[in-house]
Amino acid sequence: xxxxxxxxxxxxxxxxxLFLPVLASIKENQPDTHITLLLEPRSKAINxxxxxxxxxxxxxxxxxxxxxxxxxxxxxxxxxGNYETVVSSGSSPLVxxxxxxxxxxxxxxxxxxxxxxxxxxxxxxxxxxxYASTMxxxxxxxxxxxxxxxxxxxxxxxxxxxxMKDWLTRQSLGKEKxxxxxxxxxxxxxxxxxxxxxxxxxxxxxxxxxxxVKNPDTQVILAGGxxxxxxxxxxxxxxxxxxxxxxxxxxFVSAYGATKSLADLAALILISDLLICVDSAPMHVAVALKKxxxxxxxxxxxxxxxxxxxxxRYVKDxxxxxxxxxxxxxxxxxxxxxxYQSASDLLQIVKAQ
Length: 353
Known about the structure:
Blueprint: E1 3-8, H1 13-29, E2 33-39, E3 55-58, H2 68-79, E4 85-88, H3 93-102, E5 106-110, H4 114-119, E6 122-124, H5 132-137, H6 158-170, E7 179-184, H7 189-193, H8 202-213, E8 218-222, H9 229-240, H10 243-247, E9 252-254, H11 262-270, E10 274-278, H12 281-288, E11 292-297, H13 302-305, E12 312-316, H14 325-329, H15 336-352
Parallel strand pairs: 1-2, 1-4, 2-3, 4-5, 5-6, 7-8, 7-10, 8-9, 10-11, 11-12
Helix pairs in contact: 1-12, 2-3, 6-11, 8-9, 8-15
């Protein structure tokens, strides 16, 4: 008999990737479970790079203001699914209340205080001082499963992989022995709205690209999503004004507009050797594909967002250590030379493999 389980994880694409090991453990230990994932509309593309989700339901938890009918809609999603179990990653006391009134028999969530012990059937201790994916995975204890250190895994559909391989070949970037480096400068609009500035200047990105394309065995691919149009344009403007770039133009291509989906971006990352990015969704995609990644960190904690793995490296802006408002507003303050040296070290590992 098929079991019906509802998993609730509101957040961006990165959050959904970090949550995947929860679903993986459920499928591994209870393969007959039908998993419905309730998430925000902005993150529905997670279904394109994972085979763990049987059904997706959407709710815009970030809508402001949330009206009484919105909460009623959310409650109906929970009540009408005939779910035996619900697992929620929310840490607010209101989450326990919502799960209780849903009427779902088995209610698993984080221990948010005394009330949660009465409203949840399995309150799980919340430990934020660890890699976020492992933090989420602690929730499986409510299903009688063992918690462990985990790293997300993603899959790339064959059609997207073929499409990006063909695209690279048409750009004369299909040489197998040449190391391919993706530069992805984007960060989420939500982070910017919250004042969490995780960006690096266009001038810095251009300086890094100029250093990379000078290497005869390195090809650089500039990538970005729809939200990155202005940033990509600024980087291209900086590049075109540099004579060293024009001399090495054959070692560079912009994939902006070519990656039309999350699955396309994942395919591009999979067939490349190194992703250089800020703390963002592409970083989590690279981790889930077991690819080399070099991430630039500003105010966020690398230990919470990157696993301990030789494939993952970061450069931290120490001016953000005190989390001052003035430091955050300036963005990431890291010199391109520092990033280039770290990238060169990772590429040497690729070359040796």
